[in-house]
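User: I've been trying to design a sequence by hand for this structure and keep getting stuck. Would you show me what you'd pick, starting by listing the structure so we're on the same page?

Assistant: Good idea, let's start from the same input. This is the structure you sent:
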């Protein structure tokens, strides 16, 4: 046991330095793993938000299409009504002459 203690006490500075470097690398590796995990989590959340946004845009597009169709139909109906009124007026004018 005393032999081992004396061996440890006489550990060369280079070995101590390597042990410290390994310890620092382990901490950096853990930090990098934590960062990668966080990036993956944020990436999944971003993907969900983008998918949701795509769905909302699609809904807005179809809502716009429906509104445009209704507006076109109303304008066509008003145009037909206006044409019908013109024809009625012309017929009434011709009958009075």
């Amino acid at each position: 046991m005393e032999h081992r203690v004396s061996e440890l006490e006489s550990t060369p500075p280079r070995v101590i330095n390597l042990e410290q470097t390994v310890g620092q690398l382990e901490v950096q590796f853990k930090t990098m793993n934590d960062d990668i995990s966080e990036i993956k989590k944020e990436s999944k959340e971003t993907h969900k938000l983008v998918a949701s946004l795509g769905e909302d845009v699609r809904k807005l597009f179809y809502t716009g299409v429906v509104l445009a169709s209704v507006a076109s139909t109303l304008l066509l109906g008003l145009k037909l009504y206006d044409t019908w009124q013109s024809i009625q007026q012309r017929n009434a004018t011709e009958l009075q002459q």
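That's my pick for every position. To get oriented when you compare it with your attempt: The mean pLDDT is 90. The chain is about 95% helix and 0% strand.
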